[in-house]
């Protein structure tokens, strides 16, 4: 789906075909809108993927009910993209980006989903929904239907774009999508019950005059009892508004708390550098960005 946002005085466009930019790019855009006190209008482009032009040869079997009696064993060849194809998001993005570039827009320096036309102050951001899956070792328990479990996890992952309070619990449950059992389903249902009781919570982006980039990092040590890996957590603020957060199990096994904190800080630093480069497209430049960590030893070796 494509979303088009127009802002008074300056015109800012946000197009959302399914899959490509990170969700923090959308929050970064909304933070910029709140900071400038703009008004946003939304437009939806329906069946966007059907306009994508395929570069590969793609064939599909004749669907039930539409099988040719004369050629029952023939297949169809696609001329354009179709919903459900893995190539569809990229095909639509290529068509749209070519049109924008031909119209005088330029891609962002780091974020290729950001299109800017500085002469008339146009900004366009394209965001595509990402599919995230995790797998891990299973615990003892009665197996359940993994399709239903993955659907529940997918709904919660969508909510984490605006509810950071369920980020850790959701990502923890998402690790067991390969072989879920009744204990995992019980934990997921508990998250849904929590959401039902806290439906009023969410992000609030008021207009203010602060736009300083600040980050906070933290980590546990050997929090996962299956493989003894640690979990990193971080948040990033622009002024007093939260725009980015993460909760991710580390790829390595840390032998000390200092090491797990250091790995978390390094990951947080990489995200800050990416955000700082993205902000240059909005004409915001930062020489130094403070990253706060509660481990003096990790700070000393950084």
TrEMBL record:
Membrane spanning residue stretches: none
Q: Where is the Reverse transcriptase Ty1/copia-type domain?
A: 21-126
Return the CDD domains for the record.
RNase_HI_RT_Ty1
Q: Which SUPFAM superfamilies match?
A: DNA/RNA polymerases (SSF56672)
- Name the domain of life: Eukaryota
Please report the name of this protein according to its UniProt entry: Reverse transcriptase Ty1/copia-type domain-containing protein
Q: What is the lineage of its organism?
A: Eukaryota, Viridiplantae, Streptophyta, Embryophyta, Tracheophyta
